[in-house]
Design goal:
The complex is a heterodimer of chains A (305) and B (631).
Chain A lengths: L14 H21 L6 H4 L1 E7 L6 H10 L6 E5 L1 E9 L7 H13 L5 E8 L1 H29 L2 H25 L12 H31 L5 H33 L5 H20 L1 H12 L6
Antiparallel strand pairs in A: 1-3, 1-4, 2-3
Chain B lengths: L4 H33 L2 H10 L1 H10 L2 E2 L1 H4 L1 E8 L1 H8 L5 H16 L4 H12 L14 H30 L5 E5 L3 E7 L4 H9 L4 E5 L3 H15 L11 H19 L5 H5 L6 H10 L7 E3 L2 E4 L1 H12 L1 H6 L4 E6 L3 E2 L5 E9 L4 E2 L3 E8 L7 E7 L1 H13 L5 E5 L2 E4 L11 E7 L2 H15 L4 E9 L1 H30 L3 H21 L3 E2 L1 H30 L4 H33 L3 H34 L8
Parallel strand pairs in B: 1-18, 8-15
Antiparallel strand pairs in B: 2-4, 2-17, 3-4, 5-11, 5-14, 6-7, 7-10, 8-10, 9-10, 12-13, 13-16, 14-15
Helix pairs in contact in B: 1-2, 1-3, 1-19, 6-7, 7-8, 8-17, 18-19, 18-20, 19-20, 19-22, 20-21, 20-22, 21-22
The chains are: A alpha+beta (305), B alpha+beta (631).
């Protein structure tokens, strides 16, 4: 079986179209982030959450009124995958375990049979702010590290193109996550530590993809010294295309398997990674090389290895 | 075949090593299923027979994270402000104001609390020596002392908690320091949060207790034995005989180790050499028979200790214990000559002679007499010194137990009446032991206030759910990728699939070897590695196709394919590795588990995808060139 054999598409010539495409999605995503926002999970906000398994299926509204009767104040209730499992969360402050105890008491009174506590978390706000800070630092260092490594192994302009493509991926994925939040039933896309891991991993995946294309560009630059940069980029992207798609496909398949069969705790992660694989693949074909090309054209420089 | 010898040996060595690392995990699950299968009595017997190997398998098996086996994860922080309040020589309006300001600022600032505190004094031009340290100290000197105190407070909190958890009897607990004032507790299988919180946050109780006199001790044991007579000792199994067996074995080993006659006979008037009388005696003294008696006192292994504790919790037994007696175990086990661990069992007076608040200072030092041992010196305040003189004076040549949270850390013999409150405790084997005692003694005077800042509990049913779903999704994802590779590359996909299987095996083996834990994000990491690890083989195979298509022979195409794909594989994997290292650095708990599996996976995939697959291709080319096809 073969796909994309002897592919010969003028990707670079159409790069304005891809810029437009990316810009539109990014703008829509940013608008969604601005108006709809991103939901932060317990890790970032701090507070108390109890994940319960109820003896029979209920509607969120019922749970909400139970909590209101117990005078629990501002309570956030979400499905934890099924209609018997729910996350009940509040940012109220209470000494020790008073908050989670109150939640449990209220539930026990309403559901005479046994409710089961699946999970119980309490995080102080200061831990949340630390995790947030660490996440920003981690992404920042990852980008710097990649900039330095790619600059060292290739040429600095390649590093610029690669890192710009990574920014593109992160922002695009973030926007898509914001758009998808609360749109797909049973899919919880809160921003927590696992999400941070997903973003760093997608950065890792996307750079992996981009480096493979750049490697071919580097090789071709050595082979065809007289060739212009643009056709050379096209040639490199075309010859690596089947690999790009294949690896993207296998990775995507594993993440879809995780999303469908892996259960609630890893679903958000798997979804984000799936989107990340798509954007990472897209950007290494259509964006990273194109940005490098524009940079080279604007400066009128010539790259040699 | 000769030319592959080195590589095949290398691969075989890696496989053997992986097998060696994973062997305990296999054995552990085998023992688990055996214990599950056998009935209660048989499984206890089976456990006793294979105890050593079961324990060692459990020790080095691949451990499951708290998210998979259920349990509690707690982050504690030593409350420095509380500590500073307690340390202050005097407290006035100014100090309170400063402490309040520091408390508010510390919520938003990354700076260490102690540094914030120091700066407040500087900005007000106040002298810290008004409140802390020696009156002649400048602020710098006081800061050094306070920083040292906060360091020690974390150590103290750690030791106090470790001691309590040890007493509580949770297995496989990890207690680690994190940063400069945090402690992370991981308690697998515990879901009673109330109990754990109590355990952590109660104020430490340091007491000095006298040993109960011999008559009272005999009476206490006699009463308990009488209360137990004719009843099964622990439910639901009749382990009286069993307990006797182990006691017998243990007492034999202790006796041979110490080469001393057992002292049991003086208490029980039984002749040890007569088996029948011994059995008779054991029947009459079911409680005492649980211990191993030596001339130094009563000892028990950790299993026996648990049995004794269960008995002591029973209502009928509690009623039988005389009011003026309390029991306590030694905090740390002692080793006999054969290296087995034994805890000492103490019978003490219930009422403490003195409590720890009177201690003003304690210090571990090397022995001035130059014998190489270590000593701990201890100072008490005026009231305490007066009491101490009375107590020591009345109990010369008797032992006083130093008890923290009902665990005995030391039980020195009183040599003489101690006047003035300066005591020296001798007989520590090394500096480490002395430091521990120093920490313990200070714990009474200056508790280390801790607060729980993070608490995560996973119930057992969610854990089981996660294991089965994690495993399912892994197998499905793994299967899809394997089938896909063979469909797409035909024969060319087979070595890649073999490489994948070995890759996953290596990840698990290395994880077990490094005492890592497998978490749910870890499973996600392995699955992601599977998706990404085939990348190297995809790169190679695509290249081989290209070269073959350009007219090379199969052998030349394979050589060129590996050679040309190599730089891309190295560069792409190193950049990905870079991001996982960063993730490991900044992530916490389960995220680190994810980063770790990804890291190991990337490194392993370099080996399996480049070395292993190539050997398979080359050997097949030699033996059956016809089947090598890349679709």
């Amino acid at each position: 079986m073969r796909i994309f054999q002897n592919l010969n598409v003028d990707f670079m010539g159409k790069r304005k179209i891809f810029y437009m495409f990316s810009a539109v999605i990014i703008l829509v995503g940013l608008a969604s982030i601005a108006f709809k926002g991103i939901q932060f999970g317990l890790d970032f906000k701090g507070g108390t959450e109890v994940v319960v398994r109820l003896p029979h299926a209920v509607k969120i509204g019922e749970l909400r009124s139970i909590m209101q009767q117990a005078k629990m104040g501002s309570i956030e209730i979400k499905s934890f995958g099924t209609d018997t499992d729910y996350i009940i969360r509040t940012d109220q402050k209470g000494v020790g375990s008073t908050i989670s105890d109150n939640i449990k008491i209220a539930l026990n009174q309403s559901f005479k049979q046994g409710i089961e506590i699946l999970q119980e978390n309490r995080v102080e706000a200061k831990i949340g702010s630390e995790i947030r800070r660490d996440a920003v630092i981690a992404i920042f260092f990852a980008l710097i590290g990649i900039l330095v490594y790619v600059g060292f192994r290739f040429k600095f302009i390649f590093a610029i193109g690669a890192v710009a493509a990574l920014f593109h991926d992160v922002i695009l994925t973030l926007g898509l996550i914001s758009i998808c939040t609360d749109m797909i039933p049973g899919l919880n896309l809160e921003f927590d530590q696992a999400m941070v891991a997903a973003f760093l991993t997608l950065v890792g995946y996307s750079i992996n993809d981009t480096v493979v294309v750049f490697d071919r560009v580097r090789e071709n630059l050595k082979l065809f010294k007289s060739s212009a940069f643009e056709p050379l980029l096209n040639k490199s992207i075309n010859t690596t295309m089947s690999r790009t798609i294949l690896t993207g496909l296998t990775t995507l398949l594993t993440m879809v398997a995780l999303m469908v069969f892996g259960g609630e705790p890893t679903r958000g992660f798997a979804f984000t990674m799936s989107i990340g694989v798509l954007t990472g693949t897209y950007s290494s074909v259509f964006v990273a090389g194109a940005l490098t090309l524009d940079w080279v054209k604007n400066r009128n420089t010539k790259i040699t290895f | 075949m000769k030319k592959y010898l080195f590589r095949i040996t290398l691969i075989a060595a890696f496989l053997l090593f992986a097998g060696y690392l994973l062997y305990p995990t296999f054995m552990d699950s085998y023992y688990e299923s055996e214990l599950e299968r056998l009935s209660d009595a048989d499984s206890t017997k089976y456990f006793d027979e294979n105890e050593a190997s079961i324990r060692s398998a459990r020790e080095s098996r691949l451990k499951l994270g708290l998210d998979l086996q259920g349990g509690m994860y707690v982050t504690l922080e030593v409350d420095i402000i509380e500590l500073l309040t307690k340390l202050a020589k005097n407290e006035d309006e100014n100090l309170r104001e400063i402490l309040d300001e520091v408390r508010t600022e510390s919520l938003t600032s990354d700076e260490a609390v102690i540094d914030l505190f120091g700066r407040k004094f500087e900005s007000r031009g106040m002298r810290m020596s008004r409140y802390y340290g020696d009156i002649r100290d400048d602020n710098g000197a006081v800061m050094t002392k306070l920083t040292d105190e906060t360091e020690k407070a974390v150590d103290r909190a750690l030791e106090i908690i470790r001691n309590r958890i040890d007493q509580y009897g949770v297995s496989e607990v990890t207690i680690t320091r994190s940063g400069n004032r945090r402690i992370i507790l991981e308690l697998p299988g515990v879901s009673d949060e109330q109990e754990v919180r109590k355990l952590i946050q109660e104020t430490a109780q340091l007491e000095f207790k006298l040993f109960a006199d011999e008559n009272t001790t005999l009476k206490a044991f006699g009463n308990i034995d009488k209360a137990l007579l004719g009843k099964p000792i622990d439910e639901p199994v009749d382990t009286t005989a069993l307990a006797g067996d182990t006691t017998d074995a243990a007492s034999k080993s202790m006796a041979s180790a110490d080469t001393t006659e057992s002292k049991t006979d003086s208490i029980a008037k039984a002749n040890m050499s007569d088996d029948q009388k011994l059995a008779e005696w054991k029947k009459e003294n079911p409680f005492l028979a649980l211990f191993t008696a030596t001339q130094y006192g009563l000892f028990a292994t950790s299993d026996q200790r648990e049995r004794v504790n269960n008995i002591l919790k029973r209502d009928d037994v509690r009623k039988a214990i005389p009011d003026d007696v309390s029991f306590a175990w030694s905090a740390k086990p002692q080793l006999n000559n054969e290296g087995a661990e034994y805890y000492e069992f103490y019978t003490l007076k219930r009422k403490p002679e003195l409590t720890g608040e009177v201690i003003t200072n304690a210090r571990a030092q090397t022995d001035q007499a130059g014998l190489g041992g270590a000593v701990v010196t201890m100072q008490m305040d005026n009231d305490g010194s007066r009491d101490w003189a009375r107590i020591t004076g009345a109990n010369v040549n008797k032992r006083i137990a130093i008890v923290l949270d009902n665990a005995v850390f030391s039980a020195p013999n009183v040599r003489q009446k101690i006047i003035g409150g300066n005591s020296q405790i001798e007989g520590m084997e090394n500096m480490e032991e002395a430091r521990l005692l120093e920490i313990v003694l200070k714990a009474g005077a200056l508790p280390a206030p801790v607060e729980i800042i993070e608490e995560r509990t996973v119930g057992p049913s969610l854990g089981e759910d996660s294991i089965s779903k994690g495993l399912n999704s892994f197998l499905i994802g793994f299967g899809i990728v394997m089938i896909f590779m063979v469909l797409y590359y035909q024969f060319g996909g087979v070595p890649a699939d073999i490489a994948l299987i070995f890759n996953v095996t290596f990840i698990l083996a290395i994880l077990a070897g490094f005492h890592g834990t497998l978490t749910l994000p870890g499973i996600a990491g392995i699955l992601l590695t599977v998706g990404m690890a085939v990348d190297a083989n995809v790169l190679i195979n695509e290249r081989i196709r290209e070269e073959f298509g350009a007219g090379k022979t199969m052998r030349a195409a394979i050589d060129a394919g590996y050679a040309r794909a190599f730089p891309a594989i190295i560069d792409s994997n190193l950049t990905t590795l870079l991001t996982t290292i960063i993730l490991y650095q900044f992530g916490s708990g389960p995220i680190q588990g994810f980063a770790l599996t990804l890291m190991i996976g990337i490194i392993c995939s370099l080996f399996t995808a480049i070395v292993m697959t190539r050997v398979i291709f080359e050997i097949t080319l030699d033996k059956a060139p016809g089947i090598v096809k890349f679709g």
